[in-house]
Amino acid sequence: MANQDDQFKKVISHAKEYGYVFQSSEIYDGLSAVYDYAQNGAELKKNIRDYWWKAMVQMHDNIVGIDSSIFMHPTTWKASGHVDAFNDPLIDNKDSKKRYRADVLIEDYCAKIEGKIDKEVAKAQKRFGEAFNKEEFLSTNPRVLGYQEKIDSILTRMGKSLEAEDLADVKALIEELEIADPLTGSRNWTEVKQFNLMFGTKLGASADTAMDLYLRPETAQGIFVNFLNVQKTGRMKIPFGIAQTGKAFRNEIVARQFIFRMREFEQMEMQFFIKPGTQKEWFEYWKETRLKWHHSLGMGVENYRFHDHEKLAHYADAATDIEFKFPFGFKELEGIHSRTDFDLKQHEEFSGKKLQYFDHEEKASYTPYVLETSIGLDRMFLAVFSNSLVEEELENNTTRTVLKLPAVLAPVKAAIFPLVKKDGLPEVAKQIVEDLKWDFNVFYDEKDAVGKRYRRQDAAGTPFCITVDHDSLEDDSVTIRHRDTMEQKRVKIADLKDIINAEVDVKHWLQKMQ
Q: What is the mean pLDDT of residues 3-19?
């Protein structure tokens, strides 16, 4: 655990030091679980959003995008179930006065058991070397099977208790497992209570006539209430999807883990409207398609896994998460849910307006079923950033810190340096900046020795460094250096655009999904 914590602390301090993420209103001591994206962070976030949008909207001729507003008519949230059921089970420790999510305490307990399984695997791997078969070991080793059985029975019981709203049993489970306050070790717990996560606000000029509103806790409802508008104006035929990215707000009592769980965050969601009865096939299709999107970024296939839900929402008939290996273990990155016709039917009932689709081939109207893919943009940012940050031992016994961001997502694609600040070299370097900035986000730097400038760009995640030297004046060539391999090549100035493009072009990356 300590090692994980150290790694995570490095991620947080690197994000600040290199202009990716700042604590919100830091000069006033900040606001808990609210963060600002800095100059590099805003670019990385935008590039992730664009990468998702291109794959989701541009590459599918039956998916369109919208941008619905954060404020919605309050009845929306009554219909969606958020007013009555958007709750977290919370428990307080009487000694430390700290509040925790009961389900997270139990999941963290299970994660520790998973850590024991990992230790057994590592020991066996050491013992058997090349001959080690991990799958066989996991399915036959009695100790591992015992651990796995324990995890499964705990999570199944928790799922059933939460579904039945049996909060007393959730507390009983915490007591039986002897789960202690992570800070103080105290086991002096209160009862488990439900707490609604929506932020309320007012709309109107005077207190008497003001209407109670909520900041949206998810972006999906803006899609559902616009279903018919989009379908008719876009003449969309089922199956079709509506995608959207945007801010959502949740009054997370236990916001933690940096930008993993925040009170103000951004979602990238797509609701896919389908014919009832076809949801099983579409569920499998979107599971596979979304995993391919993640894999296309080359962040290690072993860092992703599916986790099927123990506890299904009352309206869902299937749900799975794509989990990613964050510095603090495997956690949810994206959800894929088969939501049946719950949402459209609810809005139809509460609004009194018909939200059905007329199928010309079947000559009949029906309420479509919905398949949802929903990913947190901030979590994706954290996945990309934490996975990319590495410390490398170099041959000359020095180390370098390098942020190996997928080149397609990197905020700055190339940094251009004159070798020295004289002899006409800055002029040539600045001309290269002028030419390249039409196509890429580029950066000019002339301060410090070239080696130092390389290191700075490595740590900031820039894929290419281009150095103009005295020979450049004679042969119109420059030295281009690759961030990941540190390999240096002499190339023509005229070829720079094509060389960079070959590495950072979205097409080159997304085609890996085909």
A: 90
pLDDT bin (cut points 50, 70, 90) of residue 255 is low
Domains of the chain (ranges, CATH numbers): 1-72+213-384 (3.30.930.10), 87-196 (no CATH), 412-513 (3.40.50.800)
DSSP 8-state secondary structure symbol assigned to residue 431: H
User: Residue 82's closest CA among 197, 163, 248?
Assistant: 197
- pTM (two decimals): 0.85
Q: Is 374 marked within a binding site?
A: yes
List residues bridging with 213 in a β-sheet. Answer: 201
The reply, when asked if residue 268 is annotated as ligand binding, is: yes
What average pLDDT does this structure show over 40-64?
Answer: 97
- Which of 73-87, 95-109, 111-125, 281-295 holds the top average pLDDT? 281-295
> Per residue in 343-365, pLDDT tens?
999 999 999 999 999 999 889 99
496 known member of a binding site: no
Query: Residue 198 annotated as binding?
Result: no
Consult the annotation and say whether 135 binds a ligand: no
Is 157 known to sit in a ligand binding site? no
360-368: long-range pairs with CB below 8 Å, 24+:
366/275, 366/276, 367/276, 367/341, 368/227, 368/238, 368/273, 368/274, 368/275, 368/276, 368/341, 368/344
How many other CB atoms are found less than 10 A from the CB of residue 437?
14
User: Residues 6 or more apart from 125 whose CB is under 8 A from it?
Assistant: 132, 134
**Does 175 belong to an annotated binding site?**
no
Is residue 3 part of an annotated ligand binding site? no
Identify the H or E element spanning 87: strand 87-92
DSSP letter assigned to residue 408: T
The tens digit of pLDDT for each residue in 108-136 reads 899 899 889 989 998 998 888 888 888 88
Where do runs of H (alpha helix) occur along 248-376? 279-295, 342-351
Tell me the average pLDDT of the chain: 93
Q: Is 284 annotated as a binding residue?
A: no
Is 257 marked as a binding-site residue? no
Q: What is the pLDDT of residue 150?
A: 94
Give 402: exposed, middle or buried? Use CB within 10 Å, 0-12, 13-18, 19+.
buried
The answer on whether 333 is annotated among ligand-binding residues is: yes
158 is in an annotated binding site: no
Is 266 annotated as contributing to ligand binding? yes
376 is in an annotated binding site: yes
pLDDT 10s digits, 426-463: 999 999 999 999 999 999 999 999 999 999 999 999 99
Residue 256: how many other CB atoms lie within 10 Å: 14
Tell whether 262 is in a known binding site: yes
Percent of the chain predicted with pLDDT > 70: 99
Element (DSSP H or E) covering residue 473: helix 470-475
- 379 annotated as a binding-site residue: yes
The answer for residues whose C-beta is within 8 angstroms of residue 163's C-beta and 6 or more apart is 311, 312
**299 a known binding residue?**
no
Residue at token pair 């949402």: 343
